[in-house]
Write a structure and sequence with these properties.
single chain; alpha+beta; three-stranded antiparallel sheet; 19% helix; 206 residues
Length: 206
């Protein structure tokens, strides 16, 4: 999926923005399906970014997971325009699994996929921060403004759209702001050795 030019930049740990170079992996309809799939909504996978009071979760009779978000409660957070993110999604689709495998081939380190959803234009998400892992951020719906910093000085600022991405090496301070209602995928790339996801994919044809 990545061009040779982008692969070289990523391998060289150079922060940069690439325009119209990735497929759009998801849309609003895909996200809606995901958020209504209760078995996927474990409390270890879904994180509201704002603190919530303790909640009591009753386990449905046929539920095989101990702690999953009730869809009605998650729906309430969405209706209140609560910002939230999900992790451990790298195998969500054949395409996302393949892209993570491609990144793992470049870095020889485990890769995951996170989903960040913000329904409030102008929201600054996690604010200015640096991550301990390398990261690729790819908007799926809506536009986001990305600002990169070095020694508290702005080194890059641009608006990225679906099919664009920004590569941010570990330790680089950055801020991602929602220009409009949006959700993005991020692909964190570990800097330390770890256990790799099994990237085998079951194809049934048809």
């Amino acid at each position: 999926m990545l061009s040779t030019k982008d692969t070289v930049k990523i391998a060289g740990l150079t922060p940069f923005v690439s325009e119209q170079s990735l497929p759009q992996f998801m849309n609003w309809r895909c996200l809606e399906t995901l958020l209504n799939n209760r078995p996927m909504l474990t409390t270890a996978r879904v994180y509201p970014t704002n603190d919530l009071p303790p909640i009591s979760i009753a386990k449905p009779s046929w539920c095989t997971d101990e702690l999953t978000w009730p869809v009605s409660l998650l729906s309430e957070l969405v209706s209140k325009q609560q910002t939230f993110y999900l992790k451990d999604l790298s195998r969500l689709t054949k395409e996302t699994n393949a892209f993570c495998a491609e990144l793992e081939e470049i870095f020889r380190k485990p890769v995951d996929m996170h989903l960040f959803c913000c329904l409030v234009p102008g929201d600054e998400g996690l604010g200015k921060h640096a991550d301990g892992n390398h990261n690729i951020i790819a908007p799926q719906e809506g536009h986001v403004k990305v600002t990169l910093y070095h020694d508290d000085k702005v080194t890059h600022e641009s608006v990225i759209r679906p099919r664009d991405f920004v590569f941010i090496p570990a330790g680089v301070y950055h801020k991602v702001e929602s220009e409009q209602k949006r959700f993005s995928l991020s692909f964190p790339i570990a800097v330390n050795d770890g256990v790799f996801e099994d990237r085998a994919w079951i194809s049934l044809g048809g």
